[in-house]
Design brief:
Radius of gyration: 13 Å
Strand content: over 45%
Strand order of the largest sheet: 1-2-3-4-5-6-7
Oligomer: single chain
Shape: globular
Order of helices and strands: EEEEEEE
């Protein structure tokens, strides 16, 4: 996946594997007591845990629950490693 996070708190992705990660949207920062200090709350209501944030790397983790149940299942934990 390629992702572009912009200063206006929007994002666009390529190969984000929708619906797990949509092609575009917005986000807010949510303060948490982790090493990084915040998570992302996407406009679709999904909280994305920020595992690592450096000058060159961003690791994100989320738990996606499919609204379609077992027949449309993509439910599970997903981790995205993005490199600059």
């Amino acid at each position: 996946m390629s992702a572009f996070f912009k200063t206006d708190k929007t994002f666009t992705t390529t190969n984000g594997n929708a619906p797990i990660w949509p092609a575009s949207g917005s986000f807010t920062a949510k303060t948490v007591t982790s090493t990084v200090g915040f998570n992302l709350l996407r406009s679709d209501g999904t909280e994305v845990e920020v595992i690592e944030l450096t000058d060159t790397d961003l690791i994100l983790r989320l738990n996606y629950v499919s609204p379609g149940g077992r027949s449309s299942s993509v439910t599970g934990d997903y981790e995205f490693e993005l490199t600059k």
